[in-house]
What we know:
The protein is of the alpha/beta class. It is built from eight helices and six strands; from the N terminus they run βαβαβααβαβαβαα. The protein has helices at 16-29, 53-64, 75-78, 85-96, 120-126, 141-147, 160-168, 179-187, and strands at 2-9, 33-38, 70-72, 100-107, 128-132, 148-151. A six-stranded parallel beta sheet has the order 3-2-1-4-5-6. Helix 5 links the parallel strand 4 (100-107) and strand 5 (128-132). The chain is globular and about 45 Å long.
Amino acid sequence: MIKIGLFGGTFDPIHMGHLIAAEEVCRILKLDKIIFIPTGIPPHKNYKYLTPIKHRFAMVKLAIKGNPKFLISDYEVRKKDKSYSIDTVRYFKEKLGKNVKIYFIIGSDIIPELHTWKEIKKLLKLCSFIIMTRPGFKIPEARVKKIGRLVNIKSENISSRHIRRLVKSGKSIKYLVPKEVEEYIYEKKLYRDP
């Protein structure tokens, strides 16, 4: 049985916290691959304020380059409507076949809104949820066990929002994002007022 992790998100931008977490999940669960899936149109966020998907996709591609266990998918990028997790998991189950066990990776900060997800009960049956701990977000263990497996991530509390604020104020983001992503952000003049 091949074990594949699906790691979706807006990745605006992808940062070292994402990469450390993915590496830890991969190691602890002995996953064969993790597929990063940048969200095109997220159902729970105001996408009008997101950086255009071509930039977010390019940054993820740069960030994971060189790690043979990390892949990127443009499935949600190609969609013209909202990206629902249930549709994404169904797509990968069909594409990857029966010999693949799918793990859906989320942060513990997502737990309070899971009940609002489209067809969440079906989604929980289609795949195994991996819940990554995030500093400042504690959830009852009993609740986690109903959803999936908790993986403790030992990393700094880095957020995409904080990185965007640093860039906007002209401060350094060195060591918060991969060097290639840092260069891309400055080259494309992302996260600055127009």
